[in-house]
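cron nightly-structures :: item 1 of 1
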Amino acid sequence: MTELARTYGHGLLSLAEISRTELLPLAYLEQLIGELRRAGLVEGVRGLHGGYRLTRAPDEITVGEVYRVLEGPIAPVECTADDYLPHSCDREDGCLSRTVWERVQQAITNVLDSTTLCDLSRERAAHPGTGLITIDTLTGARDAVKEGCLKTP
């Protein structure tokens, strides 16, 4: 998704190109792209010069959306899952750690839902080759001026 965000508005990308750039196996990307297409986050174009592109601008797609499509609900432990049935856990009544896990879940959700693909692309441009995301990106990048993901600082 970060490669598609980086090249948004500049044509299509083949899975082979994404595989080379992101160092991910092609077969794995084929599985992921199917899920992302079904969720409406990417679209594919067939043919000789076909490939994939985002269906919305990178600043309109959050990492949380992508995570939920590929991984499911955000739940660090079973009792914080949306589909958890009350009293499914024998320890529930005396559990002292559940509130901690609920806070962890909320913190993770806040970070993922407030970080866009554009934010990730901007961070990558600011720190090429590092693969690191600074805490400033996660907490304040969304408030930065949105000139477009391809513009470097």
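cron nightly-structures :: done
The beta strands are 42-45, 51-54.
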